[in-house]
Design goal:
single chain, 35% helix, six-stranded mixed sheet, globular, alpha/beta, Purple Acid Phosphatase, chain A, domain 2, 8 helices, 12 strands
């Protein structure tokens, strides 16, 4: 009996050691930052922009200065951030610190859309939401929060849509309107939103008015990548990830789509099968 108990204890110890080693490996992986570059067919003169997403500032193990330096190294024409800067109300100051550091690294516009986490923490708190937007906007005159709004900068038109879960706007009409503006002015059309499921509401947009690229995050690239896409098939409600639109460049029914793996993590600062990234797009 004692031998059996000893064998069981040894087995448990080995299992615990393996779990600890796996956690250490996944924590190290979450600290690795990659830069992904994509060439996109645009319109008019070429331009370059950087996409950041899913900061989750309390669960982002990569130093803010490292990210700012990586963005500076690109020297983009503008930056897009597609939401989930923070998860809780008390983290908004740290989120602002992140945006401020990125803004100081390069003197270019930063366009921000909100994700499901911002919408959750400000649900029923419109005054606090306005205060947060004001706080971010006051960091730099180059910072702009896009909520169902499009702006023109250089050779690009950047449209921002709020997260699909709480967005009650006629987004197809808005995107069609922006697409027409881009077409008439020979501009590259960049659509920014947090969740790729927004495209399910844009299928009526005429082909000639669709964005040259839609950029989003939300999935973390499958932060802990599971076999057969089980994380999204069994545990998530989002439709496009269930169909395999989890990470990278895709074409969804005529919409060029890029889903970034983002920078931060959900629940724990660990990754398996994915890396934190800044995504770089050259529109030509």
């Amino acid at each position: 009996m004692r031998e059996w108990i000893q064998m069981i204890l040894i087995g448990v110890c080995i299992l615990c050691a393996l779990i600890m080693m796996a956690c250490m490996v996944m924590m190290q992986r979450a600290r690795k930052l990659i830069a992904t570059r994509k060439e996109i067919n645009g319109s008019g003169e070429p331009c370059t922009f950087v996409l950041l997403s899913d900061i989750h500032i309390a669960n982002m193990p990569i130093p803010v200065r490292q990210i700012a330096a990586a963005v500076k190294n690109v020297n983009p024409d503008f930056i897009v951030i597609t939401g989930d800067l923070c998860n809780r109300l008390e983290e908004t100051g740290r989120a602002a610190y992140f945006v401020e550091n990125v803004a100081q690294s390069v003197q270019v516009p930063i366009f921000i859309t909100f994700g499901n986490h911002e919408n959750k923490i400000f649900e029923g708190k419109p005054d606090l939401r306005k205060a947060y937007i004001r706080e971010l906007s006051l960091l730099s005159p180059r910072i702009k929060i896009l909520e169902e709004e499009a702006v023109t900068y250089g050779n690009a038109l950047i449209g921002g849509l709020n997260d699909v879960r709480t967005n009650a706007a006629d987004v197809a009409a808005l995107v069609s309107k922006w697409g027409k503006m881009a077409q008439e002015n020979n501009l590259s059309f960049v659509l920014a939103t947090h969740n790729a499921d927004m495209l399910l509401r844009l299928e009526s947009v005429p082909a000639e008015l669709r964005p040259h690229i839609t950029v989003c995050g939300h999935t973390h690239g499958g932060q802990i990548r599971t076999p057969f896409n089980l994380e999204f098939t069994l545990l998530k409600e989002d439709r496009l990830p269930k169909e395999g639109y989890i990470y990278g460049l895709h074409d969804y029914k005529g919409f060029p789509l890029y889903v970034t793996s983002g920078l931060g993590c959900s629940l724990l600062p660990i990754r398996f099968g994915s890396f934190a990234e800044i995504a770089i797009f050259h529109l030509s």
